[in-house]
Design brief:
single chain, 461 residues, 11 strands
Length: 461
């Protein structure tokens, strides 16, 4: 699989694609077979014909908004209408759009009246479109000049809503910020325009591709920072920049706050908060069942949730975590041995406590732990001859949410009922089980939606 030109203007994403075997070619002559992915910026009809003539597989990843502009130009060109594209003539999107202007067309990127009047014939009908990442003011200024110069002008505002909204947001937050940090590739036109918009508002602006490029000295005298990002900037890249900005801010307030933040981060990353949630859910389930709330089932649920989450995360080799929450991925890589030991100790402690509660509770808990281990374990190991890669239940798209809900609900509702000395009401048990399962299901589903970008990259969504 190759991409014809860079898929998007983000070097880090392109490096990621290359690490997964998807290479880039810059000319059609370099393509010798296989599958070609058409970049988000689109290509001209002439280039598509050349690709088809080579007999290669084609995956069209042209942005739908770019496809819309192509369709507008194609339809007007079929009627003999001259096309003006407000955009950078060297940008791949604009080069592709020009190819659709069979009746003639030109790209302009500034409201230079003399230049526009020299390029656009005054005696022809003109169709005006915009590069999807163009800024609104330039587009409106060019349209105004053309309406005075040409006999008939048909205007299509094809600027992407995402681009327009980002520019509006930058103007808004610039009025309340001492510094604007723009995150995104330096080759990205819409990212560069965000920087230009911020500077035009008179606010200090820093354009970075990664968090490594943030110089702490730039924050001298800065009280508030606004963050924006280009359309092609992945979520994990933005998160890393925001986390770095927070760390710089915390360091500026002294050591105590920094230590408190670190304790909080470790508590979150090691799922102590999830364990507390498991205990609270077990207490709620006991109340719904009309059972007395005692410490043993609460602690048992906490130990089970803590150990399963911890061990599952330690065993996760899919790679999705390093894209969704890279700081957590680094934490688990650095402390893998300690976290594994901690998870095993918690699991053993849960078994010991369940045995004290009752044999039925112990048997069910051990079974749940075994199933939890199988969920993350490799089922198909790498075969040196066939090249078959390892597979896990965790790699099955959509499997995590229902299974996590089922495990939590069993620990919170069923385990306490099995170990209770009081009569168990099946209807009450069913209600508490469904309550616990639904609470966890929706919480996990929302979390998965936030992580969908990284999961899609590793094939889990």
């Amino acid at each position: 699989i190759v991409t014809y030109g860079p898929l998007i203007h983000n070097p880090q994403t392109l490096a990621l694609l290359q690490s997964r075997g998807i290479c880039q070619v810059d000319s059609i002559e370099q393509i010798e077979g296989g599958t070609v992915v058409i970049r988000a910026h689109g290509i001209s009809p002439q280039e598509r014909s050349q690709l088809e003539a080579r007999g290669v597989g084609i995956i069209d990843a042209t942005c739908p908004r770019v496809s819309r502009v192509q369709a507008v130009i194609r339809k007007r060109a079929s009627k003999g209408i001259f096309c003006v594209i407000v955009g950078d003539e060297d940008h791949p999107e604009v080069r592709g759009l020009i190819g659709f202007a069979a009746a003639g067309g030109v790209a302009v990127n500034s409201a230079d009246r003399k230049l526009i009047e020299s390029l656009v014939p005054s005696d022809r009908e003109v169709c005006v479109v915009a590069q999807t990442t163009q800024d609104m003011k330039t587009f409106e200024d060019v349209v105004s000049i053309l309406e005075e110069h040409c006999r008939g002008v048909e205007v299509f505002n094809t600027i992407c809503n995402s681009t327009r909204k980002r520019q509006e947001e930058v103007m808004r937050i610039a009025d309340h910020s001492d510094l604007i940090v723009v995150v995104g590739g330096r080759g990205s036109g819409n990212t560069r325009r965000l920087e230009q918009v911020a500077r035009a508002r008179g606010v200090k602006t820093l354009h970075v591709e990664t968090d490594d490029e943030i110089p702490p000295a730039v924050f001298s005298g800065v009280r508030s920072v606004g963050v924006t990002a280009g359309a092609s900037t992945p979520n994990w890249q933005i998160r890393r920049v925001i986390d770095t900005l927070k760390e710089i801010g915390i360091r500026g307030h002294g050591g105590l706050l920094s230590r408190m933040r670190r304790v909080f981060d470790v508590t979150v990353m090691t799922y102590c908060w999830a364990a507390a949630g498991g205990g609270g859910l077990a207490a709620t389930s006991l109340v719904l069942q009309g059972q007395p709330v005692t410490w043993q089932p609460l602690v048992l649920a906490m130990l089970f949730v803590f150990s399963m989450h911890l061990l599952t995360r330690v065993q996760d080799r899919s790679g999705g975590l390093r894209f969704n929450t890279p700081e957590i991925a680094e934490f688990y890589t650095r402390h893998r041995t300690v976290l594994t030991v901690l998870g095993v100790i918690s699991s053993i402690a849960a078994i010991g406590l369940s045995a004290r509660i009752g044999p039925a509770t112990c048997v069910l808990l051990v079974l749940m732990q075994l199933l939890g281990g199988l969920y993350s374990a490799a089922l198909i190991h790498q075969n040196k001859i066939t090249g078959a890669s390892s597979g896990r239940f965790t790699d099955v798209p959509g499997s995590k949410t229902p299974l996590v809900a089922l495990g939590w609900a069993t620990a919170a509702a069923v385990l306490p009922a099995l170990g209770s000395a009081h009569p168990v009401s099946i209807p009450a048990l069913s209600v508490s089980f469904l309550f616990a399962a639904s609470m966890v299901f929706w919480r996990t589903a929302f979390s998965d939606l936030l992580d969908i970008q990284g999961d899609r990259i590793v094939g889990r969504a």
